[in-house]
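Re: folding output
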Amino acid sequence: MVNEIELKRAKKIARLTNRTFQFPEAIRQGFYTANYFLKTRSIIERFMPKQIVTMQFFQWQPNLTVCGVDESIALIHTFSHHPENLKIEALEDGDEVQSKEPVLRITGAYEDFGFLESTIDGILSRRSSVSTNTKEVLKAANGKPVFSMADRQDDYHTQSGDGYASFIMGIDRVSTDAQAAWWGGKGMGTMPHALIQMCRGDIVKACEYYAEQFPQEKITALVDYNNDVITDSLRVARRFKERLKAVRVDTSSSLIDRYFEKNPLKLGDAHGVNPWLIHALRKALDLEGFTYVQIIVSSGFNPEKIALFEREKAPVNLYGVGLYLVTLRTNFTGDLVMLNGKPEAKVGRGLIPSNRLKTVIFSSK
C-alpha cells in the first residue's frame, strides 16, 4: 500500500516532466550520452536483451547535500523506454548524504535506461555541488539573506538548474529569470558598472536615468565605480532620499578604497570589500539620517569571507555571492551491482545497503 509521502512524491514527479525541466529532445537520440553506452545498448539489444540490472548512484564526499534526484527521475520518466517497468528508489532533494551512500537506484532492463547513466551523473554532481555550497553560504550568513549572482560564471545552460539547487536550500533572490523559473520568479538587480561608465563615472546621473526609466522601482546604487564608496553613497542618498533603497559595494580585491587614505587600518586588510569599510559606510549614512538605506556587498564572497564579516558584526543587509555557489565539489558515478536478482559488480563496487531509499511511484495524474 502506497503511503501518503509516496503519493505526494508521485504527484510531484508526474509534474516534473519535460514541461518543467525543458530537457533537449536530443537526449532521446543519445546526443549527450557517452558513446560507449550507446554501443553497449546496441550489443545488449542484439545478444542479451531483457537482462534485469540494478544501477546505483553515489559519490565520495562527506556531508553532501544531495540535489538533482527529482530531475534525474523526471529524466528517466521522459526518456527511458517503458519507465513503468522500472523500479526506482531514491532520496529526496535536500537530504544530507555521506561518502559512498547511494542516492538513487534503478532496476530494470538495461537497454531501457542504461544510456542515461552519464547524464544522471552530471545532473547529480552539478546540483549537489550547488546545493551544498548554498547551504554553507547561508550558514555563514547567520540568517541574513543571500543574493545569487551566479549567472556569469558558467555556460548559460546551467542557470536554471543552478537556480533550483540554490532555491531548495533557501535562496530566492537571483539575477536572471532563468534562475527563478522553478518558482515563477523574476531576476532582480538595478545597474552594472557599464551604466555608470556610460555616464562617465557619474553615479548620480546613472541613478537619475534609472529612476526615470523605472519610476515604480526603488534604486539600488552601485557605489564602488570611483573607488570612493562613502562619498558616492552620500551623493546618491542626498539626491534621492527615500527613493534610494540600498547601495551595493563591489570593490575589487586589488584596490583599497579612498576612505583608507585618511583612515589607515591598524589591523586587518583594507583591500576590496572589507568589514571596516562597511562599518564606516554605515556610520556615514546614519549620521546624515539615511538609516533606512541598506548595504549590499559582493565581490569574491564565500563562507570564509562572510564569516569574517559576521565576526566583525559588519552592518550588511544582503550578501551577493557568485562563483562559490557554482563551484563543482563532487562527482557521482553510476554502477551496475545486480544482474537478474543476483550480486554482480566489479571488485569494490557491490550493492551498498541503505534504509533511507524510498520507492518512487510514477503517476500520470
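--- second protein (sequence, then structure) ---
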Amino acid sequence: MLYYEKKAKRKGFKFIVGIDEAGRGSLAGPVVAASVILGKRVFKERIDDSKKLSSCMRERAFFEIMRNCLVSVGVVNNRQIDRVNILNATRQAMKQAVLGLGIKPDCLLVDGNMDMYLPYHSVYIIRGDSRSLSVAAASIIAKVTRDHIMLELDKKYPRYEFSRHKGYGTFRHVSLLKKFGPSPVHRMSFAPVRAGNIA
C-alpha cells in the first residue's frame, strides 16, 4: 500500500497527497472529497478502501487518521451538482480538498482518472483506494464525513431514511422517492430522481 508513496519519495517529492471522493453515485446529498498527507505509515486500525470496511471499522480508522495526518475535506452540495453536473462537482470537491490543506503539495495521488487541472505533479491510480495508503485514508475520511452529513439530513428529512442508504439508489430509496417525490437535497439532474418526481 506504500508503493506509490515510496516511488514519489524517491523522486524527491515531500508533500504527497492522497485524494478520493465519496457520494458520486448517490441520488441525494453532497459529493465529498478528502485529501490526506500521511503523518505516519503504520496504523493500529485497518486503512483500506472504505467500501471494504464496516462502518465501525471506518469510524475507528477515521479518528486515527484525523489524529495523525494532515487532512482536508471538500464538499459540494446537490444544488451545485445539478448546476455543473456530477463530474465537474466532483472535480470541485477534490480541488477544495487539496487547496484546503494549507500547504503546497508536491505530488497528488488521485483515485481513478479525475484530472483536477491543478499545477501539481499528479499520479492517477485506478482502484487507488486499494493500492495506496494515502488514497485509502482519503477514501475513509470522505466516506465517514459524508455519512455523518447524511445522518444529519436524515433528521431533517426522516421520511427518506437517509440513515439507511446514505442517499444511494437502493430499492427502498427509489420506492420512497416514488411515494413522496424528491426532497430539497435530492439531485434533480439524476434520472431516477426525475422519474420519482414524475411519478
